[in-house]
Amino acid sequence: MSRPIGIFDSGLGGLTVVRAIRRRLPAESIVYFGDTARVPYGIKSGRTVTRFAIEDCEFLCRHDPKFIVAACNTASAAALAALEERFTMPLCGVIEPGAAEAVRAGGGRPIGVIATEATVASGAYRRAILGLAPDATVLEQACPLLVPLVEEGRSAGDRIVRLALRQYLAPMQQAEVATLVLGCTHYPLLGDAIADILGPGVHLVDSAEAVAGEVASRLAADGAAETGGPGDVRFFVSDNPQRFRDVGTRFLGEPIGPVSLVAPEDFFAASPATPARAEDVS
Questions:
Q1: Which residues carry out catalysis?
Q2: Residues 117-127 pLDDT 10s
């Protein structure tokens, strides 16, 4: 039996990464864990986010993944180094691939980043971009209202969404950024509104697509890519599987099948080798 790709996020946003990887690598099986009991990560301390990310990976390790993706920008910024130190399988986050795409597309002009408060505070995108292009001008903007608005089901055409976006994007317009990194996996769902406000001259970088390319190239280099029939996706959450199914369809772009609820006593207390007791909600 083939080993899956493990993907974790604080909740729903990582489903945009699942969607991109499924398009790029349709033969791969995926195990997805959404830590919906503790969402959002973006307003928590780096120490707390690191602890959560380690626990998320320990849960995924029960499924023997060949690769783990930290699909949460906040976890990628705060915890990726700790994860790489603790776990032996290949890992990647969403920061480095997104930064590399921004530099490629930027053409030497200012690069903007919109993200959660924790991701901006970490400076992870700035460091990654300047590591590739030391002379780049990088402008970062925290957008704390966007994740709850998206998770409420508000769309790119919603009046409140557009009011928030106009305020958050005003500094980007003033700086005349050429490239804008959507530094949270929720933000691609608002991509049409962001593009409309900034105008056609600004290139939007969707980190999910960049991550899919990174995973594909690393699996190919390791000779670990699947070439057979279509892979499956198994979904696990730490709270409210029905809401995950209902709202998550917007992120995944297709209906979501059964979602297994991982009880807190299994997820937070059990050892990585102990199978989770799960309740399927179909």
A1: 72, 184
A2: 888 988 999 99
